[in-house]
Amino acid sequence: MVKIMKICEDIQNNIFIYIENKHKFKDRSIEKIFIDTYKAKILNKVPENKIRPLWVGFKITPICNMKCEHCWADLKGKEYSLDNIKKALDKLSEIQILHLTLSGGEPFIRNDWEEIFSYAKEKRMCLEIFTNGSLINEDICKKLNKILDKNVDTIQISLDGSNKEYYLMQRKKDCFEKVINSIKLLKKFGFTVRVNFTATNLNQSEIFNTFKLCNILNVDTFSISHVYDLNKGKSLYDKVNFKEYLEEINLCIINASEFITDLKLFIPVEFFSLTATKVEKKELKIKDKNILLNCKMKLN
Q1: Which SUPFAM superfamilies does the UniProt entry name for this protein (predicted)?
Q2: Is the dihedral of CA 3, 9, 13, 16 positive or negative?
């Protein structure tokens, strides 16, 4: 146990050092967004709105063509009409939102996705598209080519394994080759592509292998997200092996300098406590005179 604790501590320190270093990721070029936006303000003498969010996530559809084992999204309700989406984008533009993430469900499942993306770009927003990549083809790439700004806009594709066996295990649909082809197509057209890997107990041993695959595919950024403790993800959250998860991330960090693909880590706050390796339960509930304290502590 002491040896395992020391290994985890060393790896965590390595992760701390990596995250603290400054990396110039091609995706989310916030500096350019700010410069372009404030240039426009100066030239057009637009009064500055001092209180506003900078970044908004917008789920444009609850409909998805997959049934992923880990999905945290609340895939219920009806789609917003195109008219209502445009009204929402108008309001976001009024408060000078700089960065807009469009997701779902699967955004490309909408027949009017092209009009939505174009309208958002007319509002001078930096776009980030979250997609599972299964619907992208050459025709879609040609349309995106006319809409997106390749200097600031990013397409994020979900890929949870380096082969179809692991992909199918988590995504429940045999689309691995289709997604790989989508990545190749997007890179052929010169888009900035981020691949996001959602780590669960089903695929945590595949993190580094998937990073290597992304490097072969010339992906711009490989990001790693721990499964969210929401909706379907609740049943998987506690099953991730903390030690193996850290070891896989550490392998990525060790090799990152040799890869052309940048590595971006999204680490749950629980992992930043060395105490977490000793905690057996994620939640501690204390009831006292109708007071409930719910302390989320850790995986395993």
Answers
A1: Radical SAM enzymes
A2: positive
User: DSSP state, 125?
Assistant: -
Evaluate whether 56 touches 101 at the Cβ level (below 8 Å): yes
Residue 243: is its pLDDT beyond 60? yes
Q: How far apart are CA 6 and CA 13, in angstroms?
A: 11
Say what the pTM is: 0.79
For the stretch 262-286, pLDDT in tens is 999 876 655 555 444 444 455 544 4
What are the boundaries of each domain within the chain? 2-18+53-71+79-296
DSSP output for 227-250: PPSSGGGHHHHTTS-HHHHHHHHH
Rounded (to 5) percent helix, strand, coil in the chain: 45, 15, 40
Q: How many whole angstroms separate alpha carbon 170 and alpha carbon 133?
A: 15
* Residues 60 and 110: beta-carbon distance below 8 Å: yes
The DSSP letter of residue 173 is: S
CB-based contacts of 141-146 (< 8 A; 24+ apart in sequence): 141/185, 141/186, 141/188, 141/189, 141/191, 142/189, 143/114, 144/117, 144/189, 144/191, 145/189
Q: Which helix (H) or strand (E) holds 224?
A: strand 221-226
Taking each continuous run of H as one helix and of E as one strand, the counts in the chain are: 10, 9
CATH 3.40.470.10 for domain 2-18+53-71+79-296: no
Q: How far apart are CA 300 and CA 49, in angstroms?
A: 45
166-211 pLDDT per residue, tens: 999 888 899 999 999 999 999 999 999 999 999 999 999 999 999 9
